[in-house]
Fold this protein.
Amino acid sequence: MSFNNPSVRSVKIRDDFWAKRQKLISDKVLAYQWRILNDDIEGVPKSHCIANFRIAAGLEQGEHYGYPWQDHDLAKWMEAAAFSLMNYPNADVMRNLEESIDLLRQAQQPDGYLNTYYTIKEPDKRFTDFAYGHELLNCGHFLEAAITYEQATGKRDFLDIMMKNVDLVYNTVIDSGRNIFPGHEEIEIALLRLYKRTGILKYLELAERFIECRGPEGNVFEEQENFGLGDRNNRYLQLDYHQAHMPVRQQEEVVGHCVRAVYLYTAMAMLAEVKEDPALEAVVEKLWKNMTEKKMYITGGIGSQHCTERFTTAYDLPNDLAYNESCAAVGTIMMANGMLINRPDSSVADIMEKVLYNALLAGISYDGEKYFYVNPLEIIPEIADYRSEFALTRRHRERWFDCACCPTNIIRCISSLSQYIYTYDEESVYVNLLIGNEAEFEGERIRMTSNMPWEARITLQASGSRRIYVKKPIWALECRVDGKRYQGEEKAGYLDLGVPEDDHEIEIYFEMEPRFVYASTKVNDDCGRTAVEKGYLIYCAEEIDNGSVLSQLVLDGKLLAKHEEVFEAMDIIYADGFREKASEHLYSYQPPERQNTMIRLVPYYIWNNRGDGEMRVWLRV
């Protein structure tokens, strides 16, 4: 089986939740980030991204500033801008995009090379550090941006720049005779998109080579003097950090750097679809199962170790030390979609939607101008500020970072969100996200209204020749279609609505109530605790609502959802419970006294928007 996503241009989000966030990105956030990339806002970490390109182009004098991957901050901003233009035309965004493309053209070397770090700082070391140099990562992100820009505008100038760069990469890799592949995966995704766009086989060949040649045999990384970043015995920077410890078809456990991993798995899923390779698809499914059943937080976040931003062992999911990088949430969404273009699976689509509302959305403030890189599920600010193991955890969102990969990636994902709502083939359309939208593609016209995430009452009108399948969420207590309990067929966890009559409105209702969720007793941090969810939303307790020392709270009673105004109208959950009073002594033979209290819980994505304070997802019960 093989499925397609409609383009962003073909699907317009029309709801009260995601549409206004896309509009905010168009109206405000892109301009804000553009100013930061131009070092035009005081009091934030220096970006120097645009200045690096100006120096590389010979337009000004100076030294390179930042990391070898600094360029990709601009690349992801450019792709976010191109996606956004398909949602909301914006002359200022378009002008800044065109200015960026012109700057790339001037910075590109005659042979097609495009990278400011090596052009300015170490021109004699081009294509020598495949483990940590990030030249291929930067190339991949710019290539994706160029493909999206062409989709948005019909203009090829950006794509021409990047195809010249990619052709240089191809020739360098093929002519080397060495087992070269990227230390940080991403270019594989871009190459597969380019192959689908152009049909040119060498781009498929290069993507397949980068994926299939990973492994210890003749490994190029171990040839490098700087392998392990100077410490070849560093247990966290071995080949598994790069998912290169064994050939990909033999891998069964998600390991290493989380963002690298899910980008690789996304590319593997895409390659399986292009090559019609069920064996490779099965490998991806096995890795997904391992990740989601043993190494994923309840928010959909991944990464339980700060050092090297990586997966650890099964069920090791500490709440306060959770890393859960925002970029990893983006990659998980991409991986899920990669699997769904191979075959429908409502359980995969369910996790994709959970990640959107929790692990991803928590990474950006309500006003769009502050960001989390690390997303813990529990924080006591005073401890996080003091202890060394929390060095990367922030008590509040930051306006920018020295390593700023996440802010541009978050808005890239939100701006492209409509492409993930549907997958389709010649006979069927699958609804993977319950987001209100208007879509028109391949002879199908669909109008879907939704008040998610607060109410799971969906209306759907469609005209076309394909059968419509709507995802049935795992949390749905009951399902009704046109007022009657659904007793029809299900396919891969989707309701089979058949081929709808033109303009007939179908009403779908999924019963959605707040519920307690319990972790496996193998998850040490969550034993004796419970979390609260409603639909796809995970809830948390904040100090601003419940006072300090949230560890004193004990849930004991029913959950009640009330629709209230907190920045926007949202469901707040109230729970009966206790507060255990602290003893005057550090240790005591007497159990703590309990006082009845009402515990107020808010959606996890909104935490820290009302000021600093404690936060906790998993509460005692």
Remarks:
- The mean pLDDT is 96.
- The first helix runs from residue 18 to 37.
